[in-house]
Amino acid sequence: MTRARTRAQIPTWWRDAVGAATWSSMLVVVALWVAGGGLHDLTGWASALTSVGRLTGLVSSDLLLLQVLLLARIPMVERVYGQDELVRRHRLVGFWSFWLMAAHVVLITVGYAATVAINPFVQLWELTVDYPGMLLAVAGTVALVMVVVTSLRRARRALRYESWHLLHLYAYLGVGLALPHQLWTGQEFLNSPVATIYWWTLWASAAGSVLVFRVGLPLYRSVRHGLRVESVIRESDDVVSVTVRGRDLDRLDPLPGQFFSWRFLNGPGWTRAHPYSLSAVPADDTMRITVKELGDGSRALADLTPGTRVLIEGPYGRLHAGARTRRKVTLMAAGIGICPMRALLEGLPQDPGDVTLLYRARSEADLALTEELDDLSRRTGARVVYLPGRRIPHRPTWLPEAAAHFSDAEALRHLVPDVAEHDVFICGSAAWMDAARAAALDCGVPAQRIHLERFSW
């Protein structure tokens, strides 16, 4: 049985609570540094360097753990921000943590060297080999440097998703190797019971969240619901739909428009999860994804055999009815981004004329699931507008060449005259979504009513 599920609108205060907790953690860190005499050590330049070095190290550690928590799949945080925004915040926090860590190493080394009047490089060597936990900290730093380098945009473009994903897991190793150094030699960890309780609580929360929400809960759900591949249907030369069957899938509470991270136990590479959106309203015993062959993982889906076991993480994402704030909705999709939009088109409560779908593709041959979209349009009264054709050259745009005489905002307003009164859901390539979002903003759609999900890495 297929049911269109809805979920209550996400309370706005949740976002405020998560943000307040994040900023409060850094205020606590600074307060603990002050209480530990950090300001009193600013009298001489050598002691000042050392004291500020401790502060940068503490804030770096706090941000590093917050970075882990951001992508620990904590349900409340996931529902508030969505995967797209969490990834962007995770990356931003990670870079700040890294540069503060680098400042910590430099300031501590120079400060200690100035105190005893020795060469800073000699001091760095002594810190590394003589202080407890420092060799582990160096190994952790190397792992984090590797993660940061491979997170740069140019490096990400040069790597396959599977390789990038494997390298990125070393971040957990880097975080774990830093702990002994902080506990054995960190003055702020040892001198104050309040500081000790705070840091142990934060470390335990980060580790516990990863173990529970990234490992324990997905394993429990995968075993509990017994997911297996039921069928694989080729929609076009490079697009396939995979239907999986399991027990009591309604207890997962998956919503149209959300995505899962999928592992198909069909051979090498099954350990790497891939995020794919539901492309239809989930039923009590089946779910469907539709995937374009873009890499090793997606290409292998065409060869899945019925009965293959499936492991899942999720459901995740904010592209669902719970993010909706207005009766009228505009769905904007490009390429394989049609998958969550097709599910939303089917699952959104609506009267005729409430929902408009704008679907871009490079050509008519690249339009996927068109028969289903046309059928849904007839049944629901939604408008479906196909926009095939190459993108306008030399211009960041969401439009095809045939609409080159329009500006992006003019075209959107022409297609949906009252779009400023709509919620706008967007899914496609990163550059295309940026252009579509900019057009919606130019048409007067408030930023909080624009909902999108990026799957770039």
TrEMBL record:
Domain FAD-binding FR-type: 222-322
Broad class of where this protein is predominantly found: membrane
Location relative to the cell: Membrane
Keywords: 2Fe-2S, FAD, Flavoprotein, Iron, Iron-sulfur, Membrane, Metal-binding, Oxidoreductase, Transmembrane, Transmembrane helix
Membrane topology listed for this record: Multi-pass membrane protein
Domain of life, per lineage: Bacteria
Species this protein is from: Tessaracoccus lapidicaptus
Spans through the membrane: 12-35, 55-72, 93-114, 134-152, 164-185, 197-217
Pfam families per the UniProt record, alphabetical: Ferric_reduct, NAD_binding_1
Co-factor requirement: FAD
Signal sequence region: none
UniProt GO cellular component terms: membrane
Record carries keyword DNA-binding: no
Protein name: Oxidoreductase
MF terms in GO: 2 iron, 2 sulfur cluster binding; flavin adenine dinucleotide binding; metal ion binding; oxidoreductase activity
InterPro entries: FAD-bd_FR_type (IPR017927), Fe3_Rdtase_TM_dom (IPR013130), FNR_nucleotide-bd (IPR039261), MRET (IPR050415), OxRdtase_FAD/NAD-bd (IPR001433), Riboflavin_synthase-like_b-brl (IPR017938)
UniProt keyword annotation of DNA damage present: no
